[in-house]
What does this fold into?
Amino acid sequence: MKNWSLWLLLATTAVQAQNPIDSLDASWIEACAGAAPGSALEARCSEILNEGPGSGGRRSNAAIGNQLNTVGAQAGVSGRSGSESTDGVVQRVEYGPLGLFAGLAIGSLERDATDLEAAYDTDSLNLSAGLDFRYSDMLTLGLALQWQDNDSQFAGDAGSLSVSGLGLLGFVDMQTGEQSALNAYLGYNSLNLDGQRNIRYDLVLNAGTAEESGLSFASVARGSSDSSQLAVGAQWHWQNQGVWNLGFHAGLHYLSNQVDAYTETGGDGLAFAYSAQDQTSFVSRLGMVLSRNVSTGGGALLPRLSLQYEHEFSDDARDVTARFAEDANGFAIRWQTESPDRDYLKLGVGFQFLAAGNNSFYLEYRTLLLHDYYDEGIWLLGGRIQL
It folds into this structure.
């Protein structure tokens, strides 16, 4: 068994570094000081801190192979879930007294790698269904149930993340003029996050000595957490009515996303316990929609083109705090997530079909433009049937 007492005397405070790899690399000695004799963590520490030349390289290899740059995505992936499906629910222009509506959003997202967060690809599926009631000519109330399932795969087989759950959204639409309206919504989502971290690294033990040997380590650490989300927003929109329709809208969207603390299992001594993460997003939206009214035998077809500018006021870089699950001293290892891209565009192309009896259906494709980290495309399909 190794004696970590000398190194423990040097560990008076937690190491704080922005980059998760650098933070772990600088924390091995202090974190290993709390490894219980005979534990799996003590065995890993004995390998990583093996005496002799090259110990710094071993610590760096092990830090890279622990894939901690995948952890910051947990709040990011869950925080992005469901926003496009919500848009499909709350944006409508014509009502009967009572209606049923449903929406489907199928998305694909690619996230570029940075020094702080790993690259990943996400496939998303969001469903919504609900009921709206036209209380008066000026006021419509509605309620929607939402379900979402998102699967992310990290680049280089570093791990995976699955986010799924249910949400409830209430909204109100108020007519503010012949061609303008204001809608507001309040929603809550309860999500489950299941993550997997694939740990892999190679070490050279006793480098430069007669006992020099190689070691390849591979293990899987799994963790599960819950996320609670509160979404509040409002949007004003104006649109002329004619053969060519031009509309403008402006709105605000607020999201509070809380991911619970959790402890991984597995990992052969390298499982981590993570503190809770709190994410807050506050986005302004300004956009326009151009459509053309094409009469058909069964109703009106409106091909449409939309462009929306969004600005993120919040969602700043967050501190992530973790410790080895088998570290009796609970030495804190800290790093930061990436700061957001503040300004970007959304482009949409699609059509809406207005059938007899105020029934309506829509199909649209949306994509992100000029975003620093994300390439995203989402298909939106839905409709409303008047009862």
